[in-house]
Specification:
Layout (H helix, E strand, L loop, with lengths): L5 H11 L22 E7 L6 H5 L1 H7 L4 H10 L15 H8 L6 E6 L3 H6 L10 E6 L4 H13 L6 E7 L2 E7 L4 E7 L2 E5 L2 H11 L12 H6 L8 E6 L18 H7 L5 E11 L2 E10 L29 E6 L2 H15 L6 H14 L3 H6 L1 E9 L9 E7 L2 H12 L3 E7 L2 E10 L8 E9 L3 E5 L2 H10 L4 H7 L2 H7 L8 E6 L5 H16 L2 H5 L13 H5 L4 H5 L2 E9 L2 E8 L1
Helix pairs in contact: 1-4, 4-5, 10-11
């Protein structure tokens, strides 16, 4: 598994610590029954919890820990859009960031309404692109802070917007015009309401006034199918996947490739929705959701396998493993879908192009593409045993069915990039150059990657000794591996269905956060060195190369103080693909 980047950690902490437990939630500004039936997606946030619910959860305790202050401030500052800010103007102070973050204590709804059919039919090419986004925020107790925050952000823009007063649904509103967009904002009782479309704003205001739509989202088949996943929790989300066609860009008139036929060939309509919710369950933060739809053969659901009870890569798990993630795909189905999409994307007179591309690919690899894909089981995994999360110590797994044919395929694909090949027992070690290759004048290779090919799998790593150490520790049988699985993982696995097509876990207590911080600082200094500095061989130890302030000031011991374990799984059934993941 690749090392976790500091930015990702910051984002995950920010997102997951804004959850809550199954207590009584605040009323959302808009419930699905108040939303029009043409709602494409929504996200409902019910407000940050307080009291015992906040104290008992390990992630919220981490977020509130004073030692996390530097990272907390940096994470919130990075959420600001940097593209429209004036760098010459002062940035938010840590105190201002902390104050702004308290806006999340209140509930809000973010959603999108697709364009009404009547307007779509009458739309002209000169019309501005439809943007049905809307936002409703409960500003109770936050009126002054919200106004102050909006003015602060607006003052930091490079080009201040043009603001004018208008009347919407009998109430005063603001029209905010920028170079590339227009937004409208108004207030309705305790709510602040905004949208990029005037008609959408009027419709949402009517919903807030209690004028329920004649046909609501809650009455649609897609929502009713997903409803069991949308009950309870602090955050819930819902997306009607077939309506993603609305976001597909229009191809130029003279373009031979059209997007809509491709989406039809992929049977996008077979996926009804993506939905789920986030909760806290005591010390745990949990996300549960699903991609629901018609799982009949020939649909996009073919991409996922029926799953296994014990994936083959589990035989690599030992008590010293820090993280493990595994997933299973149907590669043959992926190929069939891709070929079908390619065929419909080409004009009738170019239909032979798909076969020609397939033939060229087969000639390049020395076998038909379906035969090549059939060599692989479709199971992929990443495993990390290094406490410092050193990416050079990570190992990547790929299941195979025929070693000799797989070797032949690898030799053909990499050809002049192969540096060496050595057999040791039933394992063949390959050294592959990621930069440069052999030619008639000799070797010109560098930046090597290493593969170990066995009768059942291929593992890869950036270091040869990592592969050898890993193979030496491998359990001889799945039963032995199950016995050596970490207890926390065994406990988590028992909570998921017997058959899964994806598993993941991370033991946060095994991470050496001091070593991780040192490595992140070195990486940050390398990344911050300008090309001119690099040209004169500036090293990370150079005094003029700086790492981010938050990374230098963060206290590594704050993480193991609160974080313990992450576990997750996905599985396929007659309704779709489900996922369940929790973190404590």
């Amino acid at each position: 598994m690749k090392a976790i980047r500091p930015q990702i950690i910051a984002f995950l902490i920010l997102v997951f610590t804004l959850l809550s437990s199954d207590h009584t939630w605040a009323q959302a500004p808009l419930e699905p029954a108040q939303m029009p039936a043409r709602t494409t997606f929504y996200v409902v946030w019910r407000g940050t919890p307080a009291g015992d619910a906040r104290k008992s959860n390990s992630l919220l305790a981490l977020w509130d820990d004073p030692d996390l202050g530097p990272l907390r401030a940096a994470a919130l500052q990075n959420m600001q859009s940097s593209s429209a800010k004036d760098p010459s103007k002062p940035q938010l102070t840590r105190e201002e960031v902390e104050q702004t973050s308290s806006l999340l204590e209140n509930s809000f709804v973010l959603g999108y309404l697709r364009k009404p059919e009547s307007k779509s039919a009458a739309a002209k090419s000169t019309d501005h692109p439809w943007n049905g986004m809307f936002f409703v925020y409960d500003r109770t107790g936050k009126e002054l802070l919200l106004a102050k925050t909006i003015l602060r952000f607006r003052s930091q823009e490079k080009e201040p917007p043009q603001i004018s007063s208008i009347t919407v649904a009998g109430a005063p509103a603001l029209k905010i015009e920028r170079k590339n967009d227009v937004t409208y904002w108004t207030e309705r009782g305790k709510y602040a309401v905004g949208s990029a479309e005037l008609s959408v704003l009027e419709e949402i205001l009517a919903d807030l006034d209690g004028k329920s739509p004649s046909s609501s989202l809650a009455q649609t088949a897609a929502y009713q199918e997903a409803q069991p996943l949308l009950r309870g929790g602090l955050l819930e989300f819902f997306l009607r996947v077939p309506q993603l066609k609305d976001f597909a860009p229009d191809a130029p008139a003279n373009s031979p490739v059209k997007i809509e036929p491709v989406l039809d060939a992929l049977k996008l309509e077979s996926i009804h929705s993506l939905s789920g919710h986030l909760t806290l369950e005591g010390a745990r933060a949990r996300v549960q959701g699903a991609v629901l739809g018609d799982v009949a053969p020939g649909t996009l659901f073919d991409l996922w396998t029926a799953g296994q009870q014990a994936p083959a890569s589990l035989s690599f798990i030992s008590p010293d493993v820090v993280s493990y993630s595994e997933t299973q795909f149907n590669l043959s189905a992926f190929y069939d879908l891709l070929k079908r999409a390619l065929r419909v994307s080409l004009p009738q007179q170019q239909q032979g192009g798909a076969e020609m591309i397939e033939g060229l690919a087969a000639a390049r690899i020395g076998m038909p593409l379906p035969d090549a894909l059939a060599l692989f089981s479709g199971e992929f995994a990443s495993i990390q045993t290094n406490p410092a999360m050193d990416p050079q110590k990570a190992v990547y797994y790929l299941g195979i069915r025929n070693k000799q044919d797989t070797l032949r395929l690898l030799r053909t694909i990499f050809s002049d990039q192969l540096g060496s090949e050595r057999n040791e027992g039933d394992t063949t070690f390959l050294k592959v150059s990621l930069s440069g290759g052999q030619n008639s004048t000799g070797m010109a290779q560098w930046n090597f990657y290493h593969l170990a090919v066995t009768p059942a799998f291929v593992i890869a790593s950036s270091r040869s000794d990592t592969l050898r150490e890993f193979l030496a520790k491998r359990s001889l049988a799945n039963t032995a591996a199950q016995a050596s699985l970490p207890p926390a993982f065994q406990s988590a696995r028992a909570q998921f269905p017997a058959t899964v097509d994806g598993l993941a876990f991370m033991n946060f207590q095994k991470i050496d956060y001091f070593a991780l911080k040192t490595r992140w600082i070195e990486q940050a200094k390398k990344a911050s060195a300008t090309p001119a500095k690099k040209a004169v061989d500036v090293t990370p130890q150079s005094p003029d190369v700086q790492a981010p302030e938050w990374l230098i000031n963060i206290h590594p011991e704050v993480f193991p103080r609160h974080l313990h374990f992450l576990a997750g799984a996905s599985w396929k059934d007659s309704k779709g693909i489900h996922f369940d993941e929790w973190l404590e």
